[in-house]
Specification:
13-stranded mixed beta sheet, five-stranded antiparallel beta sheet, globular, 14 helices, alpha+beta, single chain, 566 residues
């Protein structure tokens, strides 16, 4: 779609549709495309992919319009639904009057008429380039009153830092996804149980995972059918889609390509081998959002920090099978304050004062998922013990037959880099996994439903959690493929399939970790390769140090941006 800048508006236009955004109050208005003739000196800035929404970085700062500047196709889900990742954004200040150089793709219809400001050469880091553009724009504003010079500079410095964090949140983590035809916020099971009518996509979404809900609120409140075209529900999380081939003739000796990305040749095989599509979709809740040490535990609405629903989806012929798990902070009031390398956790409310909010959390979870199997991975000794004990006490007070509590001291069982001991856990809960089943649908409808979910947690719900969720999901996938006749009953997953599957879960862990802690996941080498090596331990040390640095110096600004978005 084309982006125009006029005296009083930014105008997005595609075909006969146009969306006008006021540069005075940020108001959004739907108008026919022909009204462009009424705009005052419109200049075509280039092409964009869609609207994310509006944001005010601070109450004293102007509104900014956030647009999708570039996207990348992740893959296609069953039904030929394209899923895209946002790779670059355009940030437009609604208060600036000069044409903004956003480095957009040029519009072939209008590019000869673009009146660009002085060219600014981008640095290798795209976010730094946009900040240079921001500074360039600011320099064109009339000089402020002498008495307000210092105040203005401080305000501008804060705005620049917050803008920098906003840009990095999109461009560094690459963790924002959307589909124009598929509801990424809802699992296959929820979609199959939902309304089948012609309601627009954004009205069917799961409110928990509609990341840009408040940023796009001006549009959702218009209430006319014309607005549906402009509303794109975005999730924060992770999506990867791969086609795997079941070929037991492959040798592991020729699998020497880099483990960082799945090999592209995986689909180039004979048709005699069964193949299936596997997708991993993680959805981060927009509630109690924030960074690692800034958001812990539960809030007064029963929402927990770092809450993520992960769906593993398999598609074979006309059959789609889905299995979901969740992760989320221990739902009691706790924190880790201070600037020590690893602050000691503390409880912020008494057992009695916590009960109501713990109940609120699990009542909502049981309403959505029916049954919960808690897998608590925190240490049962040492500094983490206080959190694990508080969790168990609340579970006992809740006293529900729909809640099962399993404690697995990950560090104790896997001491000495023996992460393969996670199988001790999956063996112990194997019957529970089978009883839980999974969602299975075909063209005729629902064949069976998943009955309950695993809710896995450690302290951060990152590194240990991802290792265990990947192990559980693998058990489920092998059972699913055997049911469908894709795998022989007594055979494990073929080497090549297993390697790509491990990479997907490792990428998932890294993405969720970057969103919450700022670095890739620890213990990721085991998830990625199935082995724990010294190089992986050393890499974890570097990532741990980076997490400390980010918490000490950067997370406050990122938290401010996240808070303003909501």
């Amino acid at each position: 779609m084309e982006l125009f800048q006029a005296k009083d508006h930014y105008i997005l236009q595609q075909g006969e549709r146009a969306l006008w955004c006021s540069r005075h109050d940020g108001g959004l208005q739907l108008r026919p495309a022909t009204d462009l003739l009424l705009a005052w000196n419109p200049i075509c800035l280039g092409l964009v992919e869609g609207v994310i929404g509006k944001i005010q970085l601070h109450s004293d700062h102007p509104w900014w319009l956030i647009l999708i500047r570039q996207k990348a196709l992740v893959g296609k889900l069953p039904g030929d639904h394209e899923v895209c990742k946002i790779t670059k954004i355009a940030v437009l200040s609604l208060s600036e009057m000069e044409p903004q150089d956003l480095e957009l793709e040029l519009c072939k219809k209008h590019h000869f008429g673009i009146n660009k400001p002085e060219k600014i050469v981008p640095s290798p880091d795209d976010s730094k380039f946009l900040l240079k553009t921001f500074t360039h724009i600011k320099s064109n504003v009339s000089a402020p009153n002498k008495k307000k010079v210092k105040e203005s500079k401080e305000k501008e410095k804060l705005e620049r830092r917050l803008l920098e964090e906003l840009l990095k949140m999109f461009m560094d983590s690459e963790s924002f996804y959307y589909s124009l035809t598929y509801d990424l916020t809802n699992s296959v099971q929820r979609q199959s149980a939902g309304e089948k009518g012609p309601r627009p996509l954004w009205q069917k979404v799961d409110d928990r995972f509609f990341w840009n809900k408040y940023m796009i609120q001006d549009l959702t409140e218009i209430g006319t059918p014309d607005v549906d075209f402009w509303i794109i529900p975005i999730i924060q999380g992770f999506v990867q889609i791969e086609e795997l081939v079941v070929n037991y003739n492959e040798s592991s000796d020729d699998e020497k390509s880099s483990p960082e990305t799945p090999p592209q040749e995986s689909t180039c095989v004979d048709d005699i081998h069964p193949r299936f599509l596997v997708a991993l979709i993680s959805r981060r809740s927009r509630h109690r959002a924030g960074m690692r040490y800034k958001r812990r535990g539960v809030d007064k609405n029963g929402n927990v920090a770092n809450y993520v629903e992960t769906e593993q989806l398999i598609h074979v012929h006309n059959h789609t099978l889905s299995f979901i798990q969740t992760r989320g902070s221990v739902p009691v009031f706790w924190s880790q304050a201070g600037y020590r390398y690893n602050p000691r956790p503390r409880l912020d409310k008494s057992e009695k004062d916590t009960v109501a909010y713990f109940c609120a959390h699990f009542e909502e979870q049981l309403k959505i998922y029916k049954k919960q199997v808690i897998i608590n991975l925190v240490d049962q000794a040492g500094r983490e013990k206080i959190i694990g004990d508080a969790y168990l006490k609340q579970v006992l007070l809740f006293n529900s037959s729909h809640l099962t509590y399993v404690s697995f001291d990950f560090h104790e069982h896997c001491r000495g880099m023996k992460f393969e001991n996670v199988q001790t856990l999956t063996d112990a809960i194997y019957d529970i996994i089978l009883d839980m089943k999974w969602c299975w649908v075909d063209q005729a409808g629902v064949i069976c439903k998943q009955e309950g979910i695993f809710r896995v947690n450690c302290m951060d719900c990152l590194d240990r959690t991802n290792v265990v969720q990947a192990a559980i999901a693998r058990v489920v996938m092998e059972q699913q493929l055997k049911k469908l006749g894709v795998m022989p009953p007594e055979q494990p997953l073929p080497v090549k399939c297993n390697r790509i599957y491990q990479i997907m879960w490792a990428n998932n862990g890294d993405s969720i970790s970057r969103q919450y802690a700022g670095t890739a996941a620890l213990k990721g080498d085991f998830t990625r390769t199935g082995e724990r090596k010294l190089a992986g331990v050393m890499k974890d040390g570097v990532n741990s140090a980076n997490r400390y640095y980010l918490n000490r110096f950067k997370d406050a600004y990122r938290q401010a941006v996240i808070g303003e978005r909501a």
